[in-house]
Write a structure and sequence with these properties.
Blueprint (H helix, E strand, L loop, with lengths): L1 H15 L1 H8 L3 E6 L2 E6 L2 H10 L1 H10 L6 E6 L55 H12 L8 E5 L5 H15 L5 E5 H13 L3 H9 L3 E5 L8 H16 L3 E6 L11 H7 L3 E5 L4 H18 L9 H8 L4 H18 L5 H7 L1 H7 L5 H11 L4 H5 L5 H17 L4 H7 L5 H17 L1 H15 L1
Parallel strand pairs: 2-3, 4-7, 4-8, 5-6, 6-7
Antiparallel strand pairs: 1-2
Helix pairs in contact: 1-2, 1-4, 5-6, 7-8, 11-12, 11-13, 16-18, 18-20, 19-20, 20-21
The chain binds adenosine-5'-diphosphate and magnesium ion.
Adenosine-5'-diphosphate binds next to α6 and α13.
């Protein structure tokens, strides 16, 4: 049987090309031939569907050329059907694509299909707080499968707030609940890369078919394809085809669909059709819970270290940028402590994290915001906070209110006091007004982003 299969394999390799061979044929194993039917073990349902649709004829031909009398192929799903081909047996692959690997379960092999999932990014490891509550609930809902209630789920938020974590968790959970489901997770960049490769290799039909046969498609950091016209176009068609078939799509981006520059209008509006959920910047409680949970993990890696009271609270208070930075800080503390044998106390924390703490120190004040906005619109600071209601002053004033709410931790009454003693409802009205205008008016949105960036510097 082995010899026969070896012959079939080398014939197929010559016929379908080394790349297709590595991806589709190498993972298969011939188990038996009985009554004109060849039993072929295959690691995933997806692979077997694909192979039976696209490679049945070549396989049957090759079997018959090798002297086997076979009329039918019968695929069985067996984990570990065949070890991945040795790297040396395959032609030198492009650096982005290691030799075909088919993972144990139904999540698609990462060459052609799903990007690898980080095993730490599970729902269990995701700490839920007010800022990410809704995103988490929506992600859970999608992971459960069942009828699609909102399509797409669009997750957006700043860097390091857990978008990728949630998407991996969805993929994992969905696959665990339904091993047959075809789950495809990849970044928009990988989507583009594969599309471009398909164009180059003239395999666009395969590309299209692959993307149109998934049950759950997740594309991370979709802002990346803005301005990349043919990729956008292809993405749009893939998206529509899946939505039409009632398949779930999950998208992430660093900003709301309406705010992605150079994204075609029809794509933007399509992306806005489902549920749009914002991951808000973390608050103190969430940061503290995350630190507590990560500490548990680190304790396992670095047993015997002492973490003094107040350190986690200090970190949660001082490092407000994003969860990735928070994790990095904790990691460094534990590493330092294990090297030096020191307890992790406040002194050692301040010393070893001096750079991170300094970088996070950068806090914007309401006064700075007001000054910047007045300068930008060429009006006097006294007019910005003063009582005049002409629009040329009122609009910049509302923008300053909006930025103050967004960029500082001041409450509405506190902000009101800094705007000439205005009532908190006036501030709220101003903030809402700008939120509204921002969505409708692109140049307004750009102006605000510009101001925000200038203030963050
Ligand atoms: P994004 O994709 O939004 O930039 P990631 O999902 O890559 O962010 O998250 C950055 C890091 O922070 C990851 O290590 C992730 O596990 C961690 N992280 C983010 N949010 C949470 C959370 N709520 N609970 C636990 N870990 C989190
Ligand atoms: Mg990410």
């Amino acid at each position: 049987m082995n010899e026969l299969w070896a012959g079939v394999r080398s014939e197929l390799e010559a016929r379908v090309g080394t790349h297709n061979f590595a991806t589709w044929i190498a993972p298969l194993d011939l188990r038996a031939i009985e009554g004109g039917s060849a039993d072929i073990a295959c690691p995933t349902r997806f692979l077997s569907d694909w192979v039976s649709r696209h490679y049945a004829r070549p396989i049957l031909d090759a079997l018959s050329n090798q002297g086997a009398e076979v009329e039918r192929l019968n695929f069985t799903i067996a984990t570990g059907a065949r070890p991945a081909p040795a790297a040396s047996a395959a032609p030198a692959p492009a650096p982005e694509q290691p030799a075909a690997r088919v993972p144990a379960r139904g999540i698609m092999g990462d060459d052609e299909m799903s990007a690898p999932l980080d095993s730490r990014f599970t729902f269990d490891n995701f700490i839920v707080g007010k800022p990410n509550e809704l995103a988490h609930a929506a992600a859970r809902r999608v992971a459960e499968g069942g009828p699609v209630t909102f399509n797409p789920l669009f997750l957006y938020g700043g860097v390091g707030l857990g978008k990728t974590h949630l998407m991996h968790a969805i993929a994992r959970e969905r696959q665990a609940r339904d091993p047959e489901a075809r789950v495809l997770y990849l970044s928009a960049e990988q989507f583009m890369y594969r599309f471009v490769r398909a164009l180059r290799e003239r395999t666009v039909m395969n590309f299209k078919e692959l993307f149109r046969t998934v049950d759950l498609l997740m594309v991370d950091d979709v802002q990346f394809i803005a301005g990349k016209d043919s990729t956008q176009e292809e993405f749009f068609h893939t998206f529509n085809a899946l939505v039409d078939q009632g398949k779930q799509i999950v998208i992430s981006a660093d900003r709301a669909p309406g705010e992605i520059k150079d994204m075609e209008e029809r794509i933007r509006s399509r992306l806005s059709c489902g549920l749009i959920v914002d991951l808000h910047p973390t608050d103190y409680e969430l940061r503290l819970s995350i630190l507590q949970s990560k500490t548990e993990l680190f304790r396992a890696t670095y047993p015997g270290l002492t973490l003094c009271d107040g350190v986690l609270e200090f970190l949660a208070h001082r490092i407000t940028s994003n969860v990735r930075v928070l994790e990095g800080a904790l990691q460094r503390l534990f590493a330092f402590a294990s090297l030096t044998g020191h307890d992790i106390d406040l002194d050692m924390t301040q010393e070893s994290l001096a750079d991170i703490l300094r970088a996070s120190d950068r806090k914007v004040s309401v006064e700075e915001i007001q000054r910047k906005v007045a300068e930008h619109y060429n009006i006097r600071l006294s007019d910005l906070v003063g009582p005049k209601r002409v629009r040329t002053l009122a609009r910049p004033r509302q923008i300053a209110m909006y930025l103050a709410k967004q960029m500082t931790s001041r409450s509405l009454p506190e902000i009101g006091r800094r705007f000439g003693g205005r009532d908190h409802t006036t501030i709220m009205h101003g903030v809402r007004k700008i939120e509204e205008l921002r969505r409708e008016d692109r140049s307004m949105a750009e102006d605000i982003d510009l101001l925000r960036r200038a203030l963050e510097m």
